[in-house]
Design a protein that fits this description.
Helix 5 links the parallel strand 3 and strand 4. The protein has two domains: 180 residues, Rossmann fold; 90 residues, UDP-galactose 4-epimerase, domain 1, CATH 3.90.25.10. It starts with a strand and ends with a helix. The longest helix has 26 residues. The protein is of the alpha/beta class. The strands form four sheets. A five-stranded parallel beta sheet has the order 1-2-3-4-9, with helices on both faces. Strands 5-8 form a two-stranded parallel sheet. The chain is built from ten helices and eleven strands.
Length: 307
């Protein structure tokens, strides 16, 4: 039986749905049952469940907020990961741990696409915490023989994502403009020339599930393609039901972000046959439809309250 931490989060919900659809219903997500920062509780839970695989997605996951709360980002992510690895080592030593990290641990690499043997140069406190967790996983595999798969997902997007992230933010702004019945959607964005490697979350969680069967080590999860924010806006505009105009918001500019980021998924593909399948247009459409439904439901409830 697989165990998912962070099963109530963006990717976690999709992973639970994927595992259930594959006929492997996971146990209740750990985050709903206990405090992952409480080592004794984690050890007891893993000892009771004896999972064959653990997918560790629970995390302080905001690069933006990590600048203001670096202690929380670092200490929370490291403590949760350490507690889980210790629990598996003591209570379920035969289990596979799929440790979900971040492609942000590479910082701004010297060459693209970036492969798993590139040096780690994390550029924000969140990325530092994920690099530390990645190294913890490596150390537990080397020192204790725990079967740890270290995944390094790049930007992923899709329905259910927080509007802190670029595609979901753009989709929310369009959906709100559509619901308001205005003449156009004015999209506030940061650096529209920044280029990122986007993968649909449904492809990402498919990679997570497949990774439970590979040899221990580090694996990128990415599309291998770069898309600028300006190009992303064009795709969003093509799916919008109102005209779209963009305004650069200085508050959204991030001085420490890399200009361009693109990964190589050759290692994961060689090990599992995984390839991204969902096109960017479908990711945008699904994200827009999710926000349309969410805003439409909220608007209906708000109207009903005043009737």
């Amino acid at each position: 039986m697989p165990l998912v931490t962070g099963g109530g989060g963006f990717a976690g919900c999709h992973l639970v749905e994927h595992l259930t659809g594959e006929g492997h219903p996971p146990s209740a997500p750990l985050h709903a049952e206990l405090d992952l920062c409480d080592r004794e509780s984690v050890v007891a839970a893993v000892g009771e469940l004896r999972p064959a695989a653990v997918f560790h997605l629970a995390a302080f996951s905001s690069p933006k907020l990590s600048w203001n709360r670096p202690d929380e980002a670092l200490l929370t992510n490291i403590r949760m990961t350490l507690n889980l690895l210790e629990a598996v080592r003591e209570q379920a030593p035969a289990a596979t741990v799929v440790l979900v990290g971040s492609g942000q641990i590479y910082g701004e690499p010297a060459t693209l696409p970036v492969a798993e043997d590139a040096p780690l140069e994390p550029g924000n406190p969140y990325a530092v915490s994920k690099a530390a967790c990645d190294m913890l996983g490596h150390q537990y595999a080397q020192a204790y023989g725990v079967r740890v798969i270290r995944l390094r997902p790049f930007n992923h997007a899709g329905p259910g994502q927080s509007d802190e992230y670029v595609l979901s933010s753009l989709a929310r702004q369009v959906a709100e403009a559509e619901a308001a019945g205005g003449g156009e959607a004015v999209l506030r964005a940061g650096d529209t020339s920044a280029a990122r490697d986007f993968t649909d979350v449904r492809d990402v969680v498919r990679a997570y599930a497949l990774a439970a069967e590979v040899e221990p080590g580090a694996y990128n999860v990415c599309s291998g393609r770069c898309v600028t924010v300006a190009e992303l806006i064009e795709v969003v505009a093509a799916e919008a039901r109102v005209p779209v105009r963009t305004e650069v918001d200085p508050a959204l500019l991030r001085a420490h972000d890399p200009r361009e980021m693109r990964g190589s998924h050759e290692r994961l593909t060689a090990a599992t046959g995984w390839e991204p399948q969902v096109p960017l247009t479908e990711t945008v459409r699904a994200t827009l439809d999710w926000w349309r439904a969410r805003i439409g439901t909220h608007k209906t409830r708000s109207t009903a309250k005043h009737e």
